[in-house]
Amino acid sequence: MKKRYIDIEDITDLDAWVKEAIQLKDAPYQFSSLGKQKTLCMLFFNPSLRTRLSTQKAALHLGMHVMVMNFGAEGWQLEFDDGTIMNAGKAEHIKEAAAVVSQYCDVLAIRAFASLKDKQKDEAELVIKSFQKYASVPIVNMESATAHPLQALADAITIAEHKQAGRPKVVLSWAPHPRALPHAVANSFVKMMKLKDAEFVITHPEGYELNPSITQGGTIEYDQRKALKDADFVYVKNWSSYSDYGRMGNLYPDWMITREKMELTNQGKFMHCLPVRRNVVVDDAVLDGEHSLVIEQANNRTFAAQLVLKKILEHG
Ligand code: CP
Q: The whole model's pTM is what?
């Protein structure tokens, strides 16, 4: 493995990684000396519940020290451009910030969401790529503008644990949401599913196509009910328009996942990365029902992060 975890492409063998993560889950403290006298620094430019606590727990399982900073709220505003005359609002350049933070830690994890205003800038992954360029320690992506690979690895673990059929049918369904949301979770889920032996279908209203370079070769079905038929797993997520970048046009409230829709599936398991808006994205009956995996998915975030940190420490 490369000394980083920025995107799904950094997974060298998904099946082997999932197996190893499940072994870590069985005995979380078996490598508790690996991270001794090593420090994980987590910088958050955006809010988090699961990512923050599960990644911290993962590091603690490995015996690491952890430092957390809400950089977006508490740090200096960063300048990313070279050669700028910094006589306006931004007080610190990424070159110094990344170099300085690297002296305080052995692994640097970063969360920096998409702006959803400038597609080119978001796709350039300015924040995480700039830290990668100027830091001298390995970088872990805790959700960037276009990717959430820790979530996708946790999702792969969850599917492996609950898979009945040899080749399950997995459906990624768009769902309504009152606010425009980034594409990161869906992008990484699609990339991860391409590494699995599964019948994979993406369903969304017309106009909500994801980045075609990511979905290329995949099956897209605009009829949600048709897509859900006989599904073993239903992964639900909202994302804003990619072509009309960051916009939410028609909210399509009838795309909410309901118990009646889940009856079309093969007793399908309901998955969502959380946080989720009840009775907008999914109704209470599904979320609270016996086929909902959302709490287990969140638990698996710990072991996805632990596996990534373990691999980085082993190759450090
Ligand atoms: N799923 C996820 O990344 O949750 P948080 O935003 O709470 O970290």
A: 0.98
